[in-house]
Amino acid sequence: MIAVPESFFAFDYALLFAVPRVDRGERINVGVLLYSPAAEFLAAAINVDTERLRALDSNADVELIQAALNFIQMVCAGDPAAGPAATRSARARFGWLTAPRSTVVQPGAVHGGITAKPEVELDRLMDRMVR
Q1: Which one of 8, 31, 33, 53 counts the least CB within 10 Å of its CB?
Q2: Dihedral angle computed from the Cα positions of residues 30, 99, 59 and 125, in that order, rounded to the nearest 10 degrees
Q3: Which residues pair with 70 in a beta bridge?
Q4: Residue 44 in contact with residue 16, Cβ under 8 Å?
Q5: SS3 state of residue 12
């Protein structure tokens, strides 16, 4: 096992995909979930490129996709307006958000890493994978 310096935190992350037509399976990256238990950090960053989404499906329901992504951010933040899912522990919320589903917004596989600043890592992953 590799020792991690005290100023670094282990984290898990997953991409979020918009799948405007689930039957076709085409998708674009629209966000990242990042969870670091030691840093007590759980957040989702989102960015929907409407033009790319419409290239996959000219009839894509952008408002529905944006609403689903906003809901994910509310769950991450523990916002009670998001319902029972938001009231669970951060670990349970991350697990619930990364569970496979067949909807217009889907999570990808969970990956891990280490970082000194989870919020900076979330932005780096967004730049690298989404924007």
Answers
A1: 8
A2: 10
A3: none
A4: yes
A5: strand
- In this predicted structure, the answer to whether residue 6 has a pLDDT above a threshold of 90 is no
Q: Under 8 Å CB-to-CB from 58, ≥6 apart: which residues?
A: none
The amino acid sitting at 53 is: L
| 18 close to 46: Cβ distance less than 8 angstroms | no
pLDDT band for position 31 (50/70/90)?
Answer: very high
Please indicate, yes or no, whether the overall pTM of this predicted structure exceeds 0.85.
yes
Residue for token digits 């029972």?
84
Contacts of 13 (CB under 8 A, 6+ apart): 32, 33, 34, 35, 110, 111, 112, 113, 121, 122, 125
Query: Look-up: residue for tokens 């938001």?
Result: 86
C-alpha to C-alpha distance for 13 and 29, rounded to whole angstroms? 13
Token duo for residue 93 = 């919320």
Hey, what amino acid is at 77? Answer: A
**What angle do helix axes 62-77 and 90-98 make, rounded to 10 degrees?**
160
Both structure tokens of 114 = 């280490």
Query: What token pair was written down for 103?
Result: 């909807």
